[in-house]
Amino acid sequence: MKTMIVPVDFSASTKYILKEAVIYAKATGSKMCLLHVASLDLGFIIGDIGFQYLPELEQAGMKEETGQLVEYEKSIKEQGIEVEIVIKQGTPADIILKEAELRKANLIIMGSHGRGILMEAILGSVSKNVINKSKVPILIVPPNQHHHEK
């Protein structure tokens, strides 16, 4: 069975990316791996005394992200598609590429960006890094996809 990796960042374009992934999965009989790469600084805050790590903050953030992924998983399964969810922490492009290799994925479906322009300028584009290093085909869903719906 074909497998596709669908990175999910909970941005405004996520539902359009998932819509395209569902169309592709139905057309090809592929199973889907919804992958969320959580921020490495999820439990850190900056206060008067500098950086502080608050494990309860990290746990709350992971719980919220997991809950959202479970909702996506349920919706996709209701459409008759085999799907699993994965949450990992690390550098997004590296984790996406490692998951694609680990799962012998045939395709990665992702958005062109999900973060603001400033973050993209500072960190670099996750999509660009995945495109430059991927050994499997990538389908990029444009950020303005919803403007083309009828």
Q: What do these coordinates show?
A:
The chain is an alpha/beta fold and 150 residues long. The protein has one domain: HUPs (Rossmann fold, 3-Layer(aba) Sandwich). The model is unreliable at 42-47 and 51-58 (pLDDT under 50). Strands 5-2-1-6-7 form a 5-stranded parallel beta sheet, with helices on both faces. The chain has helices at 14-28, 55-77, 92-102, 117-123, 126-133, and strands at residues 3-7, 31-38, 44-47, 50-53, 83-89, 107-111, 138-141. The protein is globular and about 35 Å long. 43% of the residues lie in helices and 25% in strands. This is Nucleotide-binding universal stress protein, UspA family. InterPro entries: Rossmann-like_a/b/a_fold, Universal_stress_UspA, UspA. Belongs to the universal stress protein A family. Residues 1-142 form the UspA domain. It holds the Pfam family Usp.
SSE map:
Elements: E1 3-7, H1 14-28, E2 31-38, E3 44-47, E4 50-53, H2 55-77, E5 83-89, H3 92-102, E6 107-111, H4 117-123, H5 126-133, E7 138-141
Parallel strand pairs: 1-2, 1-6, 2-5, 6-7
Antiparallel strand pairs: 3-4
Helix pairs in contact: 3-5
